[in-house]
Amino acid sequence: MEGKKEEKKPKNRVKMREQDPLTRARNFNEVPYGYTPFDAVEEASRCLSCKRPTCREGCPVEVDIPGFISLIKERKFLEACYKVKGKNALPAVCGRVCPQEIQCESLCILGKKGEPVAIGNLERFVADYEAEKGEIKVPEKPKPTGRKVVIIGSGPGGLTCAADLAKSGHQVTLFEALQKPGGVLIYGIPEFRLPKVIVEREVEYIKKLGVELILDAVIGKLYTVDELLNDKGYDACFIATGAGLPIFMGILGENLNGIYSANEFLTRANLMKAYLFPEYDTPIKRGKKVAVFGGGNVAMDSARVALRLGAERVYLIYRRSEAEMPARKAEVHHAYEEGIEFLLLTNPTRFIDDGKGNVCGVECIKMELGEPDESGRRRPVPIKGSEFQIEIDIAIPALGTRANPLLTKTMPDLKLNKRGYIVAEEETGMTSKLGVFAGGDIVTGAATVILAMGAGKKAARAINEYLKWKYWDFKS
Ligand code: FAD
Ligand code: SF4
After folding, report:
1. What's the pLDDT tens digit per position in 228-257?
2. Torsion angle, alpha carbons of 373, 374, 376, 381, to 10
3. How far from each other are the two terminal CA atoms of the chain, in whole angstroms?
4. Ligand 1 first shell, C-beta below 6 A
5. pLDDT, tens digit, for every residue of 363-373?
């Protein structure tokens, strides 16, 4: 029509190819294949290189998002990767598991009219491209400052803080309780979502920055924090021990055989490679009918691992509706596609014994949504008389985790909140104890990889300032 401009329709985002659902439901290979260079340039070309890039505000580790995307447009893939790594030492991890849909991508201007730029997919692409080309560039080591910092816990929070402090020239030692570094990235998130070679590759990069890693070292048992600060000569400490203690449901029969906490189930499968039996001799019960309880990422991962271990039916039992599920949308979608059976608005009331101490069923009750609770979500209320039973041989409660008191109970002068998490300043990670900083899940409770990384970055900055103050060194 004359005078009326035709509105330009935004291009759709480039989809990532992935394994077919029926095939992948029986293997542990990664689900999406990643972008090709052609896909990456195509997707990057959707970015408007905004003058005021709102996406950046949604990145807790401050990646220059339009900057690295522009380099992809110019096919400068390695340069794009180095730009990301200037701020984020774990790009291949973040590109795979960050909830971008509620972080950077939720603030991308294109999301107002259509689909936001696939920032996470592009981040994954450049990190994988760098690894494939074998051109992992390590920044030049700065002049050593002579200051020593100790970090406890090698999850994303500890690794990020370690990388940033090493880049500032400090001597950094990272203690990890388990036999492998990476925290939840290595023991929790399954191989088909985050291949372990990728975590190992990014940890290797952090070691190359000069970080010393000491494994199988439980702080609180091997040394106390006071011993590290007073006897071992460390100037400051960052605690990033996560929130790895499982929460149980407290219902009848929960101690029957065949009931695993999600943490134990996933640790056996991932860290201890039970899925590669007999090559690895870690035992794990492979159920035919499995029930997983919960609606978060941990529940989705447990259900999908159980399926891949050979279960015929896997039920995901959640007391609210799908809209309230805290899991990433992409993971819920993948779980549906693979055949996980969702029993929503359903709550377990007791487990049933087969007479030999094994679980053989679960009794559940139907729920309906009532008024919102303190979390703002509508409270599920049981519907009287709606009980029913399901036959199962494995049950996996995945209802969340809490802080492990092993370390904090050796620190009477460290302020904790009433749930046992460390009280730390949001912008600095500073705790009630001089020279001790904390961040990640041990401060916030179970959260996300990128929030733990953001906390590690802020703490590294604050530790730098603290060390200047401690030594009256304001020149650098
Ligand atoms: P962690 O990753 O928990 O690492 C803490 C480390 O400290 C561990 O290695 C532990 O062994 C070590 N440690 C503990 N105590 C001591 C001690 N006394 N001495 C020495 N070392 C110690 N988030 C997402 O963003 N996306 C996802 O898709 C996602 N999926 C998840 C799936 C599962 C199964 C789980 C469990 C969590 C998932 N999360 C996800 C959440 C995310 O992984 C965590 O929020 C994040 O790992 C927290 O990082 P952190 O550094 O605080 O601690
Ligand atoms: Fe590109 Fe979206 Fe960021 Fe704008 S807001 S620079 S379009 S990614």
Report:
1. 999 999 999 999 999 989 999 999 999 999
2. -20
3. 65
4. 97-99, 152-158, 175-178, 183-184, 188-189, 218-220, 240-242, 244, 266, 297-298, 301, 328, 404, 406-407, 440-441, 446-450, 452
5. 999 999 988 88
